[in-house]
Amino acid sequence: ATTEIYTLSLHDALPIYSMRSDGTYDMLRSALEMEVGSQEKVWITCVKNVHEFYGQLERHSGEIEKLNKQIEFFRGQLQGTKCSLSPGAPCFAKYCDGQWYRGHLKITKPIILVHFLDYGDIVAVNKSDILPVPYWASEIMFIRAQAVEFNLSDAPADTSSEVNRWFENYATGQHFTATLLEKYPGEIGRA
């Protein structure tokens, strides 16, 4: 069932990758096609606080299913492949639910942190749970990230940690109808 949520603000740009001729990647931003005042059905995937949480647009659910099937295929081809652990590199990474998703290495020492592009989470993972994105599979990184960053528009800047915890427990994994109040001027270009 879909529940109403407070009017949201939406960050206007989503990450997407571009491969350089030397085989490395640039993370770019891709504009999201939503207009101020429009409503979207969203699934909240990750909550940091009321000013930063992530969700997927329901209208992209078919694209997400297709991505998951592609990742599973590539994972089968890459089993046992060593992964270069360079901050900023794209990867496939195993999440705590045991499934593999597209990722972006944030840091590699002293721990490995992966930003899961389609869910918004940044999670510590084991080296054995990371696979490289080889050149022949790079097209999967050209599909824009499915995690959209949101914030509650009327939440005060000094929202208490208790309210943020409540919101995280309440909203994560839930489906809502969101109204887009404003777009931040996300840059189209390098992140």
Detailed description of the structure:
The protein is built from two helices and 13 strands. The protein has a five-stranded mixed β-barrel with strand order 2-12-6-5-13. It has a five-stranded antiparallel sheet with strand order 10-9-8-7-11. The termini are far apart.
Quick structural overview:
The protein has helices at residues 61-78, 161-171, and strands at residues 3-4, 8-11, 13-19, 25-31, 39-49, 52-57, 90-94, 100-107, 113-116, 122-124, 130-132, 148-152, 175-184. The chain has 191 residues and is of the alpha+beta class.
The number of helical elements comes to 2
Question: Which segments are poorly predicted (pLDDT under 50) over 5 or more consecutive residues?
Answer: 1-31, 186-191
Mean pLDDT, as a whole number?
78
Secondary-structure element order, N to C: EEEEEEHEEEEEEHE
What is the number of beta strands?
A: 13
Percent range for helical residues? 10-25%
Shape: globular
Give me the side-by-side strand order of the main sheet.
2-12-6-5-13
Largest sheet: 5 strands, mixed, barrel
The proportion of residues in beta strands is 35-45%
Rg, rounded, reads 17 Å
Q: Cα distance, first to last residue? A: 36 Å
Specify the structural class. Answer: alpha+beta
